[in-house]
Specification:
about 700 residues; alpha+beta; seven-stranded mixed sheet; five-stranded antiparallel sheet; 28 strands; about 35% helix; about 20% strand
Length: about 700
């Protein structure tokens, strides 16, 4: 076990890895479940909470941890400013004369009075004069704001123009110094697997819930923090934590909404010469970047393309350089095979960014569709680095370059272009710094990271080839010391070869294929057909007796659902776990019968449980079903059943199927996973039920069967 096990009294039991982490990195690590324990309803980034936990609870001694949690809770209760309590906090400051607060502070220059003035985001006060020296020592106050611990004083003046708030002191919430040499020396005490698990625990996840590839995908999200001018894109389904790292992990990263991006905010305001975000932050991440219809500023796109390629931008006649990495995260609304068949993997981007010149500047495409939807059991209770400590370590390594560490062992393909090579080098360098910060690794360990880096850039280039025919195809791979060639493919290329290449032909047309007669009692046509024939589907009533075996959804339902793109299921009782399982089995059957690149809209009409406790479990179950189905190209929508107890299915191919018992036709089994009926419906006994098949229209007859 790598993650901390939980004892019966609720106290997590240390694992061997946790013991080693505390032994070698004591004082710089914290138990990750403590963040959730102290956060409560405070809307504050993880790095702020872990900064406080690092001050009071960075220990493996339970008494120290317990006292530290209480201390942090008291600090948050006494000093964190909740927006809905801002007036109360103002009153406390007024009555006491001076009070310490935790808030996000931003600063502007008041040109008329030639002074810097601070604003407190949650407290809701502005115009507070701040000393020039504080601003010069913390320039990020001027761009985006910084979480700080501040002493605020109150002094009323008869002069109405005078702001009564006075800033007594300000301390940014981030580590002031750390021992990088100690970090490297202690790394030697871990195996590669242990070290990767430590990094995964440091970002808050239980490594046991992830395979090796999934762990490396999570680590790619950290590369922008350790590699200068790294351009990363991640597109994938909702709920996979794409933006979490960039909003919670580091005081050196800034997450902004894609719709809020402007040239002055990002690069430079030419009217006053003020530098934007890229001049002050290590990472600028654009959330909600996808959306075909989103309006974009062409001037911004052009400046961004130049910055991503040349690491510079213009302020008037002056050219300025910057080191900020650019990250673009957004949601996809279709499955991978659908996008490959109908467009490309950049299809969700706004039109101005769906451009080969912009896309070619991306160093890596992280396949967000491979990342699991975040669930409660995925969070760690083990020890990991205090995130602001790890953030400082990664920041200090931005000056290092590990891009040539593979060259003693491997050589990239000769037709890989300079821009492709740059992308591979930066991803490889970033992964090396994260996993092997000393720069020392075996040929096998280096090869694993090199292949990952090549795949990330290949995913970018292969999609560009679908968009712009002027780009030349590239053989992505490398040779070893024996001159043996090792090609690299993307996972989706291996999964969907028929759609990955634009020149690849579609699957055989179903109209020219024979459709076998489905087994079971519902087909009244002969069992053997010629290629041109279609089996005729039964119309009318079928009854099944109690304890009958050999019945399945595949036999009694699938022949009528095949070829449908719109399916309605009316069943007011999808509430209990076994009823949810029935629905999942039907959806899995529909997904397996369709082309992977096609999509089906499935609308479930049901009702919610009257008991609030069961209703919450029901909603969680249905939400998981929706998310799982979406990954297979089924767009599930839940709506309230209009009433009554009737249960039926209707398709856009003209069939209505009246279901006496709905999907709940099987008897309860006590065998659990060891019962053969668990995996094959045909082995289960059924309850007595009936099914009526009604052909409502002649629409879609050719596609039935």
């Amino acid at each position: 076990m790598t993650d901390t096990q939980n004892l019966g009294n609720g106290t997590p039991q240390q694992t061997d890895l946790d013991y080693k982490i505390n032994l070698l990195y004591g004082g710089t690590v914290v138990r990750k479940d403590l963040v959730r324990a102290v956060k409560g309803n405070a809307i504050v980034p993880t790095f702020v909470l872990e900064y406080l936990l690092g001050q009071y609870a960075a220990s493996d001694d339970e008494a120290t941890i317990h006292a530290g949690i209480n201390a942090v809770r008291k600090i948050l209760a006494d000093h964190y400013v909740h927006r809905n309590e801002s007036e109360l906090v103002k009153s406390i400051i007024r009555e006491k004369g001076r009070h310490r607060i935790i808030d996000r502070v931003s600063v502007v220059l008041n040109e008329k009075e030639d002074v810097y003035q601070a604003s407190f985001e949650n407290l809701g006060i502005r115009g507070v004069v701040i000393d020039d020296g504080i601003v010069q020592a913390n320039e990020k106050l001027l761009v985006g704001g910084v979480w700080c611990i501040c002493d605020v004083e109150y002094f009323h003046s008869d002069d109405a123009r005078t702001v009564p708030w006075i800033l007594g002191s300000l301390k940014p919430i981030q580590m002031s110094r750390f021992d990088f040499g100690g970090y490297l020396a202690s790394r030697e005490g871990f195996t590669t697997d242990e070290w990767i698990d430590l990094l995964i625990q440091s970002i808050g996840f239980n490594p046991e819930m992830f395979g090796r590839r999934a762990k490396l995908l999570q680590l790619i999200r950290l590369i922008p923090f350790v590699e200068r001018n790294y351009n990363l894109i991640e597109l994938g389904p909702k709920g996979t934590g794409k933006s979490h790292i960039f909003s919670e992990f580091s005081p050196h990263g800034m997450l902004i909404s894609g719709g809020e991006v402007t040239v002055p905010k990002l690069f430079v305001n030419n009217s006053n010469g003020k530098i934007g975000l890229v001049g002050y932050w290590d990472v600028v991440a654009f959330d909600e970047f996808a959306g075909k219809k989103k309006r974009t500023d062409k001037a911004l796109v052009d400046i961004m393309k130049n910055y991503m390629a040349n690491k510079s931008f213009s302020r008037g006649v002056q050219t300025l350089g910057a080191e900020a990495s650019m990250v673009f995260v957004g949601n996809t609304s279709h499955t991978v095979p659908y996008m490959l068949k109908n467009s490309d993997l950049f299809d969700e981007l706004p039109e101005a960014y769906h451009d080969s010149a912009y896309l070619d500047r991306l160093h890596c495409y992280l396949p967000g569709w491979e990342v699991d939807t975040i669930r409660g059991e995925m969070f760690s209770t083990g020890y990991g680095f205090v995130v602001d400590y790890l953030a400082e370590v990664l920041r200090s390594m931005r000056n290092s370059d590990f891009s040539d560490k593979y060259q003693p062992y491997f050589t990239l393909g000769s037709d890989i272009s300079t821009r492709d090579r740059d992308g591979i080098h930066k991803t490889f360098s970033g992964l090396m710094k994260l996993v092997y910060p000393t720069g020392e690794a075996s040929a096998e360990e280096i090869e694993e990271l090199l292949r990952f880096a090549i795949e990330g850039r290949k995913r970018v280039k292969d999609q560009i080839l679908r968009i712009d025919a002027t780009f030349e195809p590239v053989s992505f791979g490398y040779t070893d010391k024996s001159s043996d060639w090792h090609p690299v493919t993307t996972l989706e290329e291996d999964e969907y070869p028929a759609y990955y290449r634009k020149t690849a032909g579609p699957r055989a047309n179903s109209a020219t294929e024979s459709t076998p007669t489905p087994p079971g009692p519902v087909a009244d046509a002969p069992a053997v057909h010629s290629v041109a024939e279609k089996p005729r589907l039964f119309e009318g009533q079928r009854d099944f007796v109690e304890n009958q075996r050999g019945v399945s959804y595949e036999q009694i339902l699938l022949p009528y659902l095949r070829g449908a793109t719109e399916i309605e299921l009316h069943d007011p009782y999808i509430r209990m776990s076994h009823q949810g399982r029935n629905l999942v089995e039907l959806l899995a059957l529909i997904a397996s019968a369709k082309d992977p690149a096609d999509e089906v809209n499935f609308k479930l009409f049901t009702t919610l449980d009257d008991d609030p406790n069961y209703q919450q479990k029901q909603l969680q179950m249905l939400n998981q079903i929706i998310q799982g189905a979406a990954q297979q190209g089924l767009n599930v929508e839940i709506a309230k059943d209009p009433g009554g107890h009737d249960r039926w299915i209707r398709t856009d191919t003209g069939w209505r199927i009246n279901l006496g018992r709905g999907l709940d036709i099987f008897q309860k089994s006590e065998g659990g996973w060891f019962d053969l009926g668990t995996s094959h419906q045909e082995f289960r006994q059924v309850r007595a039920f009936g099914v009526t098949y009604i052909r409502e229209t002649s629409q879609g007859v050719a596609s039935d069967g």
